[in-house]
Write a structure and sequence with these properties.
Radius of gyration of chain A: 11 Å
CATH architecture of chain B: Alpha-Beta Barrel
Helix content of chain B: 40-55%
Oligomer: heterodimer
Shape of chain A: flat
Number of strands of chain A: 3
Strand content of chain B: 5-15%
Radius of gyration of chain B: 19 Å
Distance between the termini of chain B: 41 Å
Number of helices of chain B: 13
Number of strands of chain B: 10
Helix content of chain A: under 10%
Largest interface: A-B, 20 and 30 residues
Largest sheet of chain B: 10 strands, mixed
């Protein structure tokens, strides 16, 4: 698994500043959702969910898989 | 014992005749203390008229997002501020997804596209994709591509698609509150063409869209009138950015009541757990539903959200001594 772990500046679920409060619900929801926003630049990613796993592509920061 | 359950024992379990709308409503209104009895009866009905086997299916999105329709529950509509972006799955990845699904023991693989109806590009992708899957993977292929023309129905039959999913989503009286870009009747027309073609009809919907209990009963009765081969039962998983994004999830007991009621309305159909069960029912509720009328599951992930691991469902089926339906038994 290569989760998006580098430079978590932005919440990868809601796209807001990850350093602010209130992302506990995002973290909980992510257990059953792929990421939607690049955590490094907050661009919306192209996400493909597969029966097993997912892939997410940021035009600037590349692909991640989970 | 409530009168409706006595009636259902005779009529549904004994004679195989489903409850009508009033009967379904009576089940949906049962107090909590009678829910175990309703689930037990629904389970007996399922075992008698369908048997112990469970049909396992995997699904994949061939074309995600950017849909021109406004189904208020859907994160793939291009009309809402959902973060889901448009993306196409290439054919090698589609075949790999079918292989992943087959490895779980699933007999069904449903290819889904977020569209009003397929255009030439999508039909070409389907033709190539279905052929590639059939060449490499031992699994039955189903499709869900929105509203179809008669020519497209015929093309799908020609490709070897054996089942077509097109959900009515909710009852006729509530549908305009959920979708405004097309009508319930347009969906019904596609379903009619699919049934006439000889493909198996898969048609269900989503509970928790804001419909009343009476409308839930109306929906069950309308599905029973359609008499689909399979009914996928979803529970709303509110998606950010959609008009229904702030709706509460269905209460677990209400979901279980609905499972029992839908089984008692349609004793012979494949009643499938679909999306939303993880947040509505959790692990314990998933077990209760399998012992309350459900006889099919979608394993693995959904179209834009994730499910629990396939092994969790397969282990549960093993524990419940419910065999996974074999491919040879479905051909």
């Amino acid at each position: 698994m290569t989760e998006l772990v580098a430079a978590q500046r932005w919440c990868d679920r809601c796209g807001e500043d990850a350093s602010t409060a209130g992302h506990e619900s995002c973290a909980a929801a992510r257990a059953l959702e792929p990421p939607r926003y690049c955590p490094q630049c907050r661009r919306r990613m192209k996400v493909q969910v597969l029966p097993v796993g997912w892939s997410a592509v940021c035009v600037e920061h590349g692909e991640s898989r989970g | 014992m409530p009168e409706i359950l006595d009636q259902a024992r005779t009529q549904v379990l004994g004679d195989g005749v489903g409850l009508d709308q009033a009967g379904v409503l009576a089940v949906l209104n049962l107090p909590d203390e009678h829910l175990p009895a309703a689930l037990q009866l629904a389970h007996e009905v399922r075992m008698r008229w369908c048997g112990p086997e469970v049909e396992v299916e995997g699904i994949v999105s061939l074309k995600t997002g950017g849909c021109p329709e406004d189904c208020h529950f859907c994160s793939q509509s291009g009309l809402f501020t959902s973060p889901v972006r448009s993306v196409w799955l290439d054919i090698p990845s589609l075949v790999e997804a079918a292989k992943q699904t087959a490895k779980t023991g699933a007999t069904e693989f449903c290819i889904v596209a977020a569209v009003r109806g397929p255009d030439d590009r999508l039909m070409k992708q389907m033709r190539e994709g279905v052929a590639a899957i059939k060449a490499e993977v031992d699994i039955q292929v189903a499709a869900s591509l929105g509203m179809l023309s008669q020519e497209q129905v015929d093309d799908l039959v020609d490709m070897g698609v054996h089942r077509y999913n097109h959900n009515l989503e909710t009852c006729r009286s509530y549908f305009p509150n959920v979708v405004t870009t097309h009508s319930w009747e347009e969906r019904w027309e596609t379903l009619r063409m699919v049934r006439d073609s000889g493909m198996e009809v898969c048609c269900g919907g989503i509970l928790g869209l804001g419909e009343t209990v009476e409308q839930r009963a109306e929906f069950a009765a309308q599905l029973a009138e359609l008499d689909p081969h399979e009914v996928p039962l979803n529970f709303l998983n509110p998606r950010p950015g959609t008009p229904l994004g702030d709706r509460p999830v269905v209460e677990g007991k209400d979901a279980l009541r609905a499972i029992a009621a839908f089984r008692l309305a349609m004793p012979r159909t494949i009643l499938r757990y679909a999306g939303g069960r993880e947040i509505t029912l959790g692990d314990l509720g998933t077990r209760d539903g399998l012992l309350g009328g459900i006889n099919a599951v979608i394993v693995g992930n959904y179209l834009t959200t994730l499910g629990r691991p396939a092994t969790a469902d397969l282990d549960l089926l093993d524990e419940l001594k419910m065999p996974v339906k074999a491919l040879s038994a479905t051909l």
